[in-house]
Amino acid sequence: MSNHDEHDDEHQHDHEHEFVDEEVVILEDEDGNEHEFLIAETFEVETRIYAVLVSADGTTEEGFIFRVEEKDVDGEQFLDFIAIEDDAEWTNVERVYNEMLEEDEQE
């Protein structure tokens, strides 16, 4: 379920999440187990959309960042949460997200 094997993709900070969407996102890990998440926040980096997902049951405060893409299945639009595999993309996304966290802390 990790979205980038070589990097620490968790974010930990003290502000409360205001969930973007109360709809539960179900992701499957590498063992086929399903896990429920809520979208804590979304942000854009170079025309791509990213989402921070947090555990729906509140058992952990860890957040995971995924790239979000729309996909069409039989004429219906769905969101696809894609693990960030590219080092350059991850570095850029992490930088932008950390800048957002710093701005939040200053407010």
From TrEMBL:
HAMAP family from the UniProt entry: UPF0473
Pfam families tied to this protein: DUF1292 (PF06949)
Record family assignment: Belongs to the UPF0473 family.
Protein name (record): UPF0473 protein MM817_00041
InterPro entries: UPF0473
Domain of life: Bacteria
